[in-house]
Amino acid sequence: MEKNADWQWEISSHRPWFRLNLRELFNYKDLIFRFVRRDIIASYQQTILGPIWVFLQPLFSTFVYFIIFSRVAKISTDGIPPFLFYLPGTIIWSYFADCVNATMNTFQINAYIFNKVYFPRIIVPLSTILFHSFRISIQLLLFLVVCSVYAFKGNPVHLSWQVLLVPILIILTACFALGGGLIISVLTAKYRDLDNMTQFLLRLFMFAAPVVYPASLIPLKYKFLFWLNPLTPVIEIFRSSFFKSHPLPIPYLLLSFLTTFIILTTGIVLFNKREIQIMDVI
Prior knowledge:
The chain has helices at 22-27, 29-44, 53-72, 82-104, 106-109, 111-114, 123-152, 166-190, 194-205, 223-228, 231-242, 250-281. By secondary structure, the protein is mostly helical. It has one domain. α4 (82-104) packs parallel to α8, α4 runs antiparallel to α11 and α8 (166-190) runs antiparallel to α11. The longest helix is centred in the last third of the chain and has 32 residues, at 250-281. The protein starts with 21 loop residues before the first helix and ends with a helix.
């Protein structure tokens, strides 16, 4: 073999701190879509209702929030019909939580594949993000149908130009979930008891985002910490796009982008540096 022959890929124990070979990922695009297809089929195989669960899950959760937080606790929804107030927050939060849960178990669930064949490991968490992005796109259609029903009955639904930001908000949520999930996956692969702690903290984290309450209820002294959560501007801007149009919180949105970038970069760095060592642990 010639010494100067080009290799298509090379496996080494030494990895750079930041390695995201987009060309390599593009070469494996078919594998990414195969993983997405696998997840879609596996999610609804041997189920009675099948894909209908995509619609039922946010509706059931929203109905529970409607009973507990609107009828029992009587928490304000800023004049928005309670069901319409809870539904978008539920959809976005479920998307984030599902992406984190799927990504954080990357090594445990796919160890049997990682030990047999080489491919860029980050393809697996990327495919889970795409799978759940497919689900949220369907759930957003459900949200539009519910909005149309309320508008037909005379309830106020006002579209603003901020609705154009919805795709960016979904991408921001996906990046936040991916970065957080990658960080957690590296930790839980070595310390299994962190999995239970992470699940508990993830449930509590829902109440740090305006899923079941409006931002107007937050005291002034906690405003910065509240908006530091990248999900806060995502949910608030999403609601504002369809209902009461509030001024776009540009400083907090930029802060959300910065926080998400830091978390995503940290997750990719840790994942790339530790993926080979982790396979020896699990």
